[in-house]
Amino acid sequence: MLIWIKILVAIFIVMLLSFVAERVSPKVAGLLSGYPLGSAIVLFFYGVEISPAFAAKSALYTLVGLVASQVFVYCYYRASVTCKRFIIFLSSVAAILGYLLAAWVLHFIPHLIPVTAITAASIPVAAVFLFVFLFRSIKNKKIEKRVSLTHRVLFLRALSAAVIIVMITGAAHTVGPAWAGLFSAFPITLFPLMLIVHHTYGAESVHTIIKNFPIGLGALIAYSLSISFAYPTVGLALGTVISFGAATFYLLAYAAITRRVRSSRAGA
To answer: CA-CA distances (angstroms) from residue 237 to 35, 52, 76, 242?
Structure first.
């Protein structure tokens, strides 16, 4: 029963983000890709299948692992502007290898410094500033002419996200909270979305998603940090609600600040 819930939720999320990319903009889809969607599913099922304490500890390592997820999109971006043939395939390979290498490096962090809420949150926040700088030259592109995606294509891409979720949550039983947390930071729902948009609308549209992904990760940072405190104290259900509230507050605050800055520039 739990496996089917994971699959259905993952499929729904990927299809929803694909709809946002088409109907609203890739920029908004990129921001929402940082919302705790795939990672939230993984952490919740860690709590259900293993224990809330395991999920809470894994959430700290999820924060550290968000550096690897940003390396993932950076490698995809660099490969997509370099490769001349088999762009999507080679970009995907580069992104996955980049993620695995980054995760392997990050798993040494507990041997160097204590992984506390402060250190675990500081590492991805610093990385966000770095990757926002690295992506500064990318132009935001809006999809002008929508292409009708068949339900079969969307379902197959979304199903790939579901398979990843099932594999990651299944592996958590044997790899421990550190590796489980690092795995949960994998861009489970973002990756199929990137494939759909890249294949259908081209590199510029997927680059817009990539550009805005690090900024959106603030929501996942808020979520994972909240989970690390909430799960052991108030339980899975209420802890999840509180943590989604923290993530939503971040996105609303970011939107409000962005509107204010635009209004100030327009009035200047």
So the answer is: 18, 10, 35, 9
Tokens (6 digits) for 142:
């809006």
The pLDDT score that the predictor gives to residue 15 is: 66
Report, in angstroms and rounded to the nearest whole number, the Rg of the chain calculated over CA atoms. 18
Distance from C-alpha of 212 to C-alpha of 73, rounded to nearest angstrom: 11
160 Cβ neighbours under 8 A, 6+ residues apart:
191, 192
Most confident of the following: 80-84, 106-110, 134-138: 134-138
Q: What are the sequence ranges of the domains in the chain?
A: 2-267
In which residue are the tokens 């039983």 written? 173
Amino acid of residue 249: F
Burial category of 47 from C-beta neighbours within 10 Å (exposed 0-12, middle 13-18, buried 19 and up): buried
C-beta separation of 159 from 7 below 8 A = yes
> DSSP labels for 3-66?
HHHHHHHHHHHHHHHHHHHHHT-HHHHHHHHTSSSHHHHHHHHHHHHT-HHHHHHHHHHHHHHH
Model confidence pLDDT, tens digit, residues 59-93 = 888 899 899 999 999 999 999 999 878 899 999 99
Q: What is the pTM of this model?
A: 0.81
Chain centroid to CA 88: how far?
19
Quick check: 21 and 192 in contact, CB under 8 A? Answer: no
204-221 residue pLDDT tens: 888 998 998 898 889 999
